[in-house]
Amino acid sequence: MGLEFIDKISYFVPSIKQPGAPLSLREKMYWTAGIIAIYFLLYNTYAIGVNQQAVSQPFLQLISIVFASKIGSLITVGIGPIVLSSIVLQMLSGSGLIKIDMNDNTQRARLQTLQKLAAIGLALIEAIIFVRTGYVPISSPSLFGVVVLQLAIGAITIIYLDEIMTKYGITSGINLFIAAGVSYAIVAGTFSILLPEAIAAIQAGGAAAISNAIIAFGPLFFAVLVFFVSIYTYEMKVELPLAFEQLRGIGGRLPIPFLYVSVLPVILASSLELSFTVWFRVLAGVTGTFQNLARFIAYYQPVSSSAGTSLQLAGGLSYLISPTFPEPYSAAFGGIGGYGPYFTYLATHTTQLFIPWGGVVLVPEWIHVIVYVVVLVILCVIFGKFWIELTGQSPKNMAEQIGSTGWQIPGFRRDPRIVENVLNKYIPTLTILGSIFVGLLAALATLTGAIGSGMGILLTVGIIYMLYQQLEQERIYDTYPALAKIVK
After folding, report:
1. What's the pLDDT tens digit per position in 334-359?
2. Could you give the CA distance from residue 162 to residue 168 in angstroms, rounded to a whole number?
3. pLDDT tens-digit map of 246-304
């Protein structure tokens, strides 16, 4: 199926124009600073009618980090619609239901318009789901429509901020919002949770006061560990020699990094898993004939707190694939030094799995750990392979780009098919291995309770590294404008 029908409605979809002339690095920095200021303004502004005291579940913090949002604020929905619409279109394109040539500017523009329309529709749907299912508690039922409207407008604002950032800023809006949200969570978590715990340990006195204070920073230690492991991995690459055909003696290297698709597979995979958790919340109220089937998919259990009673995902298939693990430093595990009780919990705790035809099976929490890790890794591999095709980073596209710029691999004919065969020895393998690695590292960091969430830290490191590389290139391009015509 083609996308020609998009031409008839594209005129009615607001779009951000491309800059009339290439922007300098300084101009891009100004745009980026302005966009991030607007983002934090929306981030710290609660929607009118939201019960702020009832927004306190730890799992909601994980959703906020991955979706670059803040539950209860104007950007509660965050980047969820953008990512989910991208996932759906990837699947449709990969299955052949939508035929698109990413090298054709017209077809690429149609795909972007379709993705924007899908994201706007999902923004409204997810705003309704967040409020209807109680993820966003409201002060009065009469304010339902008012809160939904505010969340939908906030989500649509994020969609257009992402588009402005992509065209005028130094990176994509998704990357910027995730990095900003995670950085904020790490700083806030360190000063509002870990530091008070350490001070309390010292004030308590005793022989173990100093050691308890140090252990209190365990989540920050795991965050730093993930940070440095990620940085080290980003430096791993395979370099293929290149020679310029028209000028003998001019050569270079084509770096193929171990993390060829960066952290994008983790963004897509984790967003899909958390989207299931949000969307399946509507099954919590199912009764009668389909009650067991609904609980088999996702079982929600009422949990009482000082803010009232809320529903928490506690079983079902959706629970098994989700990163719904308690925080090791929570009061349930004794706060400071709670890693022992936390790992005991993972080894001994059980959850309920309702069988559609009747009966309940108790599933150990360690099976939840295994299923979550395996599913996350598999999704990372799938999205990694989809992404290189969709973004023109496949061996075939890379071979065509190398040939069109006059480069060739020494010892081989300047034939795109020959170069493609050489790249096929590296790119598919590195795509799979890199996707597996980021999936495992993100899962490990999540299970250890790293501050800012393991997933968030991994995403932020990848985003910062990509941003560093882009800034490095921008400086070169500003100094040597002719080089930009060859490389870009």
Report:
1. 554 567 777 888 888 888 888 777 67
2. 10
3. 555 555 677 788 888 777 788 778 778 877 877 787 777 777 777 888 888 888 877 66
The one-letter amino acid code at 302 reads P
Q: Is 311 left (phi over 0), alpha (psi -120 to 50) or beta?
A: beta
Measured between alpha carbons, how far is residue 146 from residues 46, 139, 141, 413 in Å? 13, 11, 10, 65
What would the mean pLDDT of 34-45 be, rounded to a whole number?
91
Distance separating alpha carbons of residues 363 and 248, to the nearest angstrom? 66
Token pair of 423 as six digits = 């790249």
Domains along the chain with CATH numbers: 21-276+367-487 (1.10.3370.10)
Distance CA 207, CA 452 (A): 30
C-alpha 444/C-alpha 242 separation (Å) is 38
- The C-alpha R_g of the chain, in whole angstroms, comes to 24
Bridge partner residues of 240 (DSSP):
254
Residues 6+ apart with CB under 8 A from 67: 77, 78, 79, 80, 83, 271, 274
Spatial distance between the Cα atoms of 40 and 363, rounded to a whole number of angstroms? 41
Sorted by sequence, the CB contacts under 8 Å of residue 205 that are 6+ apart come out as none
Q: What backbone torsions phi and psi does residue 121 show, to the nearest 5 degrees?
A: -65, -45
3-state helix, strand, coil in the chain (%, to 5): 65, 10, 25
